[in-house]
Protein backbone atom coordinates (compact mmCIF):
# COMPACT_ATOMS: atom_id res chain seq x y z
CA UNK A 1 0.00 0.00 0.00
CA UNK A 2 1.46 3.36 -1.00
CA UNK A 3 0.29 6.94 -0.56
CA UNK A 4 -1.05 6.87 3.02
CA UNK A 5 1.42 9.69 3.61
CA UNK A 6 2.26 12.11 0.83
CA UNK A 7 4.78 14.92 1.34
CA UNK A 8 4.34 17.85 -1.05
CA UNK A 9 7.18 20.25 -1.78
CA UNK A 10 7.53 23.25 -4.07
CA UNK A 11 11.09 22.37 -4.82
CA UNK A 12 13.68 19.77 -3.82
CA UNK A 13 16.95 18.68 -5.36
CA UNK A 14 15.60 15.24 -6.16
CA UNK A 15 12.65 13.41 -4.61
CA UNK A 16 14.73 10.19 -4.63
CA UNK A 17 17.51 11.93 -2.70
CA UNK A 18 15.01 13.44 -0.25
CA UNK A 19 13.83 9.93 0.64
CA UNK A 20 17.37 8.63 0.93
CA UNK A 21 18.30 11.49 3.26
CA UNK A 22 15.23 10.98 5.49
CA UNK A 23 14.97 7.22 5.32
CA UNK A 24 14.67 6.67 9.06
CA UNK A 25 11.83 9.17 9.43
CA UNK A 26 9.64 7.89 6.60
CA UNK A 27 7.26 4.97 6.69
CA UNK A 28 6.99 2.26 4.08
CA UNK A 29 4.83 3.50 1.18
CA UNK A 30 5.38 7.23 1.82
CA UNK A 31 5.36 9.36 -1.32
CA UNK A 32 7.44 12.50 -1.78
CA UNK A 33 6.47 14.82 -4.63
CA UNK A 34 7.69 18.25 -5.71
CA UNK A 35 6.53 20.83 -8.25
CA UNK A 36 10.09 21.01 -9.55
CA UNK A 37 13.46 19.43 -8.92
CA UNK A 38 16.72 21.33 -8.95
CA UNK A 39 18.89 18.29 -9.56
CA UNK A 40 16.53 15.66 -10.95
CA UNK A 41 18.33 12.40 -11.72
CA UNK A 42 17.78 9.98 -14.57
CA UNK A 43 19.19 6.50 -15.08
CA UNK A 44 22.84 6.01 -16.02
CA UNK A 45 23.90 9.20 -14.24
CA UNK A 46 21.88 11.43 -16.58
CA UNK A 47 20.07 14.58 -15.58
CA UNK A 48 16.25 14.61 -15.51
CA UNK A 49 15.05 18.07 -16.47
CA UNK A 50 12.36 18.90 -13.95
CA UNK A 51 10.32 21.97 -14.84
CA UNK A 52 7.10 22.87 -13.07
CA UNK A 53 3.97 21.45 -14.73
CA UNK A 54 5.34 17.93 -14.89
CA UNK A 55 5.20 15.15 -12.34
CA UNK A 56 8.07 14.12 -10.09
CA UNK A 57 7.61 11.75 -7.21
CA UNK A 58 9.31 8.97 -5.32
CA UNK A 59 8.15 6.41 -2.81
CA UNK A 60 9.86 3.94 -0.59
CA UNK A 61 9.16 0.30 -0.04
CA UNK A 62 10.62 -2.32 2.26
CA UNK A 63 12.78 -4.65 0.23
CA UNK A 64 10.47 -7.67 0.12
CA UNK A 65 11.16 -9.00 -3.33
CA UNK A 66 14.39 -10.67 -4.19
CA UNK A 67 15.18 -9.14 -7.51
CA UNK A 68 15.41 -5.58 -8.65
CA UNK A 69 13.48 -6.67 -11.75
CA UNK A 70 10.32 -7.24 -9.65
CA UNK A 71 10.35 -3.53 -8.82
CA UNK A 72 11.05 -2.65 -12.44
CA UNK A 73 8.00 -4.71 -13.52
CA UNK A 74 5.78 -3.38 -10.76
CA UNK A 75 6.53 0.30 -11.31
CA UNK A 76 6.36 0.18 -15.09
CA UNK A 77 3.14 -1.84 -15.39
CA UNK A 78 1.45 0.42 -12.82
CA UNK A 79 2.55 3.50 -14.73
CA UNK A 80 1.20 2.06 -18.00
CA UNK A 81 -2.12 1.39 -16.27
CA UNK A 82 -2.25 4.89 -14.77
CA UNK A 83 -1.50 6.57 -18.11
CA UNK A 84 -4.23 4.45 -19.69
CA UNK A 85 -6.70 6.36 -17.48
CA UNK A 86 -5.79 9.46 -19.50
CA UNK A 87 -6.40 7.74 -22.83
CA UNK A 88 -2.75 6.94 -23.52
CA UNK A 89 -1.62 3.68 -25.10
CA UNK A 90 1.71 3.43 -23.27
CA UNK A 91 4.30 0.69 -23.73
CA UNK A 92 7.41 -0.31 -21.82
CA UNK A 93 10.80 0.10 -23.44
CA UNK A 94 13.06 -2.32 -21.58
CA UNK A 95 13.76 -2.03 -18.79
CA UNK A 96 11.48 0.78 -17.62
CA UNK A 97 11.11 3.69 -20.01
CA UNK A 98 7.49 4.44 -20.74
CA UNK A 99 6.75 5.21 -24.38
CA UNK A 100 3.86 6.58 -26.38
CA UNK A 101 4.08 6.42 -30.18
CA UNK A 102 7.80 5.67 -29.98
CA UNK A 103 8.63 8.61 -27.75
CA UNK A 104 9.46 8.62 -24.07
CA UNK A 105 6.75 10.06 -21.86
CA UNK A 106 7.97 8.87 -18.46
CA UNK A 107 11.00 7.39 -16.75
CA UNK A 108 11.64 5.40 -13.61
CA UNK A 109 14.73 5.43 -11.42
CA UNK A 110 15.03 2.63 -8.87
CA UNK A 111 17.63 2.88 -6.13
CA UNK A 112 18.26 0.93 -2.94
CA UNK A 113 19.53 2.02 0.44
CA UNK A 114 19.91 -0.28 3.43
CA UNK A 115 16.85 -2.59 3.30
CA UNK A 116 14.70 -0.11 1.37
CA UNK A 117 13.90 0.43 -2.27
CA UNK A 118 13.32 3.95 -3.56
CA UNK A 119 11.26 4.22 -6.74
CA UNK A 120 11.33 7.57 -8.50
CA UNK A 121 8.96 8.44 -11.31
CA UNK A 122 9.07 11.38 -13.70
CA UNK A 123 6.20 11.98 -16.12
CA UNK A 124 6.17 14.62 -18.87
CA UNK A 125 2.76 16.14 -18.29
CA UNK A 126 2.70 19.70 -19.65
CA UNK A 127 6.14 19.91 -21.27
CA UNK A 128 6.12 20.80 -24.95
CA UNK A 129 9.75 21.58 -25.65
CA UNK A 130 12.52 19.08 -25.24
CA UNK A 131 15.37 20.85 -27.03
CA UNK A 132 17.87 18.18 -28.11
CA UNK A 133 15.50 15.37 -27.15
CA UNK A 134 12.80 16.74 -29.49
CA UNK A 135 12.33 13.56 -31.51
CA UNK A 136 12.71 11.23 -28.56
CA UNK A 137 10.34 12.68 -26.01
CA UNK A 138 6.67 13.46 -25.68
CA UNK A 139 4.21 14.53 -22.99
CA UNK A 140 0.60 14.00 -22.00
CA UNK A 141 -0.20 17.49 -23.33
CA UNK A 142 1.39 16.71 -26.69
CA UNK A 143 -0.38 13.37 -26.98
CA UNK A 144 -3.87 14.33 -25.80
CA UNK A 145 -4.02 18.10 -26.35
CA UNK A 146 -5.15 18.52 -22.73
CA UNK A 147 -3.42 20.18 -19.81
CA UNK A 148 -3.69 17.89 -16.79
CA UNK A 149 -2.74 18.67 -13.23
CA UNK A 150 0.35 16.54 -12.49
CA UNK A 151 -1.22 15.46 -9.20
CA UNK A 152 -4.10 13.81 -11.08
CA UNK A 153 -1.53 11.49 -12.65
CA UNK A 154 0.03 10.85 -9.25
CA UNK A 155 -3.37 9.87 -7.79
CA UNK A 156 -4.04 7.56 -10.76
CA UNK A 157 -0.65 5.92 -10.10
CA UNK A 158 -1.43 5.44 -6.40
CA UNK A 159 -4.80 3.89 -7.24
CA UNK A 160 -3.33 1.56 -9.88
CA UNK A 161 -0.49 0.57 -7.56
CA UNK A 162 -2.76 -0.27 -4.65
CA UNK A 163 -5.13 -2.21 -6.91
CA UNK A 164 -2.33 -4.43 -8.19
CA UNK A 165 -0.35 -4.83 -4.98
CA UNK A 166 -1.47 -8.46 -4.65
CA UNK A 167 -0.41 -9.47 -8.17
CA UNK A 168 2.05 -12.34 -7.94
CA UNK A 169 5.31 -12.45 -9.86
CA UNK A 170 3.82 -14.45 -12.74
CA UNK A 171 0.86 -12.08 -13.20
CA UNK A 172 3.26 -9.19 -13.07
CA UNK A 173 5.57 -10.77 -15.64
CA UNK A 174 2.66 -11.45 -18.03
CA UNK A 175 1.52 -7.81 -17.76
CA UNK A 176 5.07 -6.59 -18.29
CA UNK A 177 5.54 -8.76 -21.38
CA UNK A 178 2.17 -7.90 -22.88
CA UNK A 179 2.99 -4.20 -22.61
CA UNK A 180 6.51 -4.53 -23.95
CA UNK A 181 7.58 -2.11 -26.63
CA UNK A 182 10.73 -4.03 -27.54
CA UNK A 183 9.85 -7.68 -28.12
CA UNK A 184 10.11 -8.51 -31.82
CA UNK A 185 12.01 -5.33 -32.64
CA UNK A 186 15.18 -5.31 -34.78
CA UNK A 187 18.32 -3.83 -33.26
CA UNK A 188 22.03 -3.64 -33.96
CA UNK A 189 23.98 -5.66 -31.43
CA UNK A 190 27.78 -5.72 -31.52
CA UNK A 191 27.68 -5.10 -35.25
CA UNK A 192 25.04 -7.78 -35.93
CA UNK A 193 21.49 -7.32 -37.12
CA UNK A 194 19.59 -8.86 -34.25
CA UNK A 195 16.02 -9.38 -33.04
CA UNK A 196 14.79 -9.06 -29.48
CA UNK A 197 13.03 -12.36 -28.96
CA UNK A 198 12.20 -12.43 -25.27
CA UNK A 199 12.55 -10.87 -21.85
CA UNK A 200 13.21 -13.56 -19.26
CA UNK A 201 11.51 -13.78 -15.87
CA UNK A 202 14.78 -12.73 -14.31
CA UNK A 203 14.84 -9.56 -16.41
CA UNK A 204 17.39 -10.46 -19.06
CA UNK A 205 16.89 -9.55 -22.69
CA UNK A 206 17.17 -12.43 -25.14
CA UNK A 207 18.60 -11.36 -28.47
CA UNK A 208 18.88 -13.58 -31.51
CA UNK A 209 21.28 -13.20 -34.43
CA UNK A 210 22.99 -15.62 -36.85
CA UNK A 211 20.95 -18.52 -35.42
CA UNK A 212 22.30 -17.92 -31.93
CA UNK A 213 20.85 -16.45 -28.78
CA UNK A 214 22.49 -14.09 -26.32
CA UNK A 215 21.18 -12.96 -22.96
CA UNK A 216 22.05 -9.42 -21.95
CA UNK A 217 21.27 -7.42 -18.83
CA UNK A 218 19.76 -3.97 -18.59
CA UNK A 219 23.17 -2.54 -17.77
CA UNK A 220 24.67 -3.81 -21.02
CA UNK A 221 22.26 -2.33 -23.53
CA UNK A 222 20.46 1.00 -24.10
CA UNK A 223 18.17 0.31 -27.11
CA UNK A 224 18.59 3.95 -28.15
CA UNK A 225 17.73 3.10 -31.75
CA UNK A 226 14.20 2.12 -30.79
CA UNK A 227 13.07 5.70 -30.26
CA UNK A 228 10.59 7.31 -32.63
CA UNK A 229 9.69 4.04 -34.24
CA UNK A 230 6.53 4.67 -36.25
C1 LIG B 1 15.10 7.82 -16.49
O1 LIG B 1 14.31 7.49 -17.37
O2 LIG B 1 16.27 8.11 -16.75
C2 LIG B 1 14.61 7.88 -15.08
C3 LIG B 1 14.03 9.22 -14.73
C4 LIG B 1 13.50 9.29 -13.32
C5 LIG B 1 13.11 10.70 -12.93
C6 LIG B 1 12.42 10.74 -11.60
S1 LIG B 1 11.69 12.29 -11.28
C7 LIG B 1 11.39 11.83 -9.64
C8 LIG B 1 12.58 11.05 -9.15
N1 LIG B 1 13.61 11.96 -8.65
C9 LIG B 1 14.69 11.97 -9.40
O3 LIG B 1 15.70 12.68 -9.19
N2 LIG B 1 14.56 11.13 -10.44
C10 LIG B 1 13.28 10.44 -10.38
Task: Give a quick rundown of the structure.
The chain has 5 helices and 11 strands. It has 230 residues and is an alpha+beta fold.
Your description of this structure?
This protein has 230 residues and is an alpha+beta fold. It folds into two domains: 6-178, BirA Bifunctional Protein, domain 2, CATH 3.30.930; 186-226. Helix content is 23%, strand content 30%. It has a seven-stranded mixed sheet, sandwiched between helices. A four-stranded antiparallel sheet has the order 8-9-10-11, with no helix packed on it. Strand 5 and strand 6 (103-113) form a beta hairpin. Helix 2 crosses helix 4 and helix 2 crosses helix 5 (169-178). The longest helix has 17 residues, at 68-84. It starts with 5 loop residues before the first strand and ends in a 14-residue tail after the last strand. The model has no long low-confidence stretch (mean pLDDT 93). The structure holds biotin (BTN). Biotin binds next to helix 1, strand 3, strand 6 and strand 7.
Amino acid sequence: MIGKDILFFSSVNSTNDYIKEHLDELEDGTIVTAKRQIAGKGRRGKQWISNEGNLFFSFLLDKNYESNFSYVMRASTVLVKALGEFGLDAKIKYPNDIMVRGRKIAGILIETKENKVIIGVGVNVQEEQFETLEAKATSIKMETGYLFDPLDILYAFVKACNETVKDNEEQLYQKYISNSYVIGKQIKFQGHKATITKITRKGLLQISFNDTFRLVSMDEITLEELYYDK
